[in-house]
Design goal:
Layout (H helix, E strand, L loop, with lengths): L1 H25 L122 E5 L15 E6 L3 E2 L4 E3 L4 E22 L2 E8 L6 E11 L4 E6 L5 E3 L9 E9 L1 H11 L1
Antiparallel strand pairs: 1-2, 1-10, 3-4, 4-8, 5-6, 5-7, 5-8, 5-9, 5-10
Length: 288
C-alpha cells in the first residue's frame, strides 16, 4: 500500500515540476494541472512544399508490358531498290509435268521401216459412181435368162416333226438353189415359182405342209388305210431374194412318209416360172 502511495507522489511531483519549467520558458502564468495525457487533437493544415530533393538512383528496369492490339494495315510502300542477286540455291525437287508445248519444226525423214503385218479388212465402202459406158460386147442373150429348178428325193422314212425335211437324194438342181444339208430352197431371183410334192406313206398317217419363211402355205393330210398311198400337193407363189421354202411334218406322230430306194420314192420339186420384170430390166441395163 505504501509503495503505491510513494509511486503516486513521485509522479505528482514530476508533473508539477515539468509544468512550472514550461511556464518560465513561455512567460505565461503558471497553471498547475496534473492529469494524464488527453486525446489527440485534430490534424493541422499541410505545410508549404519544401525544396526538391536530389535525384535518386536509377532503379532497375521494369517488366515488359503486354503486347498491344494489332494495328490497321498500312498503305503499300514504294518499291525498294533491287538487291543483289544471292547465291545459287540447291536444286529443288522435280515439279509436275507441264502442258505440251507447241509442235516444233519437223525433223528429217528417217529410214523406211520394215513392212508390217496385213491388217484386218476394212468396212465395205459406199457404192461408187457409175462408170463410163463400155464398148458393145458379143450378144449372149441366153445368159440374161434367170434359171432355177430342182427335184429331190429322200432315202429315209418317218422324218422328225416340225423341222425341215432333208431330201438328200438330188435328182436335179439348176443353179444349186436347193440345199440338201438343210432341206431348204433359197430364192436367188425374184419372181413367180411353182412347187409340188409327191409323198409315199405307209404304216402311219401323214400331215405334211409346204412352208414359206416359217409360215404354212399349204397343208395336206392322208390317213393310213393299211396299204401304201401317195399324198401330193402343189402351189404357185411369189418369192423375193433370200426367201426360203421347205416341207415339214406339222402334226405330232403324223410322219408316215415312206421311202424305199428299191421301189418307192418321195419327191419334192420346184422351179421358176418367170422372173420379176423390174429385176429383168435392171439386169438388162447392167449387161447393156
Amino acid at each position: 500500500m505504501w509503495q503505491l502511495v510513494g509511486v503516486f507522489s513521485l509522479c505528482l511531483c514530476h508533473c508539477v515540476g515539468g509544468q512550472l519549467q514550461e511556464t518560465r520558458v513561455k512567460g505565461a502564468p503558471p497553471r498547475l494541472i496534473c492529469s494524464i495525457p488527453g486525446l489527440p487533437g485534430a490534424p493541422g493544415k499541410p505545410g508549404s512544399s519544401g525544396a526538391p530533393g536530389p535525384h535518386g538512383h536509377i532503379g532497375l528496369p521494369g517488366r515488359d508490358g503486354r503486347d498491344g492490339r494489332k494495328g490497321e494495315k498500312g498503305e503499300k510502300g514504294d518499291t525498294g531498290v533491287k538487291g543483289r542477286v544471292g547465291a545459287t540455291g540447291k536444286m529443288g525437287q522435280r515439279g509436275e509435268r507441264g502442258p505440251p508445248g507447241k509442235r516444233g519444226p519437223g525433223g528429217t525423214g528417217g529410214d523406211k521401216g520394215p513392212l508390217g503385218t496385213v491388217g484386218p479388212p476394212g468396212e465395205k465402202g459406199e457404192k461408187g459412181q457409175r462408170g463410163v459406158r463400155g464398148t458393145p460386147g458379143i450378144c449372149r442373150c441366153g445368159s440374161l435368162v434367170p434359171k432355177a429348178a430342182f427335184s429331190v428325193g429322200i432315202t429315209t422314212s418317218y422324218p422328225a416333226e416340225r423341222v425341215p425335211i432333208k431330201f438328200n437324194k438330188v435328182l436335179f438342181n439348176e443353179g444349186s438353189h436347193y440345199n440338201p444339208q438343210t432341206g431348204k430352197f433359197i430364192c436367188a431371183y425374184p419372181g413367180i415359182y411353182y412347187f409340188s410334192y409327191d409323198i409315199t406313206l405307209a404304216n402311219k398317217h401323214l400331215a405334211i405342209s409346204l412352208v414359206h419363211n416359217g409360215q404354212y402355205k399349204i397343208k395336206t393330210f392322208d390317213a393310213n388305210t393299211g396299204n401304201h398311198d401317195v399324198a401330193s400337193g402343189s402351189t404357185v407363189m411369189y418369192l423375193n431374194p433370200e426367201d426360203e421354202v421347205w416341207l415339214e411334218i406339222f402334226y405330232t406322230d403324223q410322219n408316215g412318209l415312206f421311202a424305199d430306194p428299191g421301189w418307192a420314192d418321195s419327191l419334192f420339186s420346184g422351179f421358176l416360172l418367170y422372173a420379176d420384170t423390174n429385176y429383168l430390166d435392171t439386169l438388162s441395163e447392167d449387161y447393156a
